[in-house]
Amino acid sequence: xxxxxxxxxxxxxxxxxxxxxxxxxxxxxxxxxxxxxxxxxxxxxxxxxxxxxxxxxxxxxxxxxxxxxxxxxxxxxxxxxxxxxxxxxxxxxxxxxxxxxxxxxxxxxxxxxxxxxxxxxxxxxxxxxxxxxxxxxxxxxxxxxxxxxxxxxxxxxxxxxxxxxxxxxxxxxxxxxxxxxxxxxxxxxxxxxxxxxxxxxxxxxxxxxxxxxxxxxxxxxxxxxxxxxxxxxxxxxxxxxxxxxxxxxxxxxxxxxxxx
Length: 260
Ligand SMILES: [Zn+2]
Known about the structure:
It holds the Pfam family RTC4. May be involved in a process influencing telomere capping. InterPro entries: RTC4 (IPR039024), RTC4_C (IPR028094). This is Restriction of telomere capping protein 4. The chain has 13 helices and no strands. With 260 residues, the protein is mostly helical. It is elongated and about 65 Å long. The chain binds zinc ion (ZN). Zinc ion is lined by residues 64, 66-67, 69, 94, 97-98. The site of zinc ion (ZN) has 7 residues, from helix 5.
């Protein structure tokens, strides 16, 4: 992931700042016993403002320090009392509770996001290649194609909802294997493909279109509803179906799209 390299020094900085604040807290608590006229001048007010949230008292429900979601006491305790002061631990704890929350959400909504049968997914995807070929040749409208054409990044969807980045890679590989020549041919007349490239077209148009088809089957809904589900479950997919191969590395920059 792109964040990892930049994350290390930040973590160090935060830890040392936390130590400073802890020291500041210690000195402020001793100051609080002083007469008020004395403490006005000597109190390190700026540092006090930065003071981190204290570890929750027993009667309060603990909150995730990253997203502030309430956590069960047993879950919170399982991370140890020092978790609240270490950024890396905070991130890990946040990821763990998010994963568990998304698993529950998936079960509640009957989204087949956990334990995806990836071999079967390939076979299912194969049945939709004819449709995607027609779509590539302009026989079907696609909101994702429009988004790519307009280059409105906010409308571009990079992963097929709850299938996550891993699903995106599986579908992407299959699409490129089967339809590469068709996309290349379509690029002769389609400015968006010519400008963005085969990979971008597969990733930003055909993968989400295929994702919609698969979600329609999974959830027995129409394409409109499937599109809504796909959009609503992007984060769920990122947590539950991560992928080591980071195909989407260029997402933030919007660069690196292959030229035809
Ligand atoms: Zn959280």
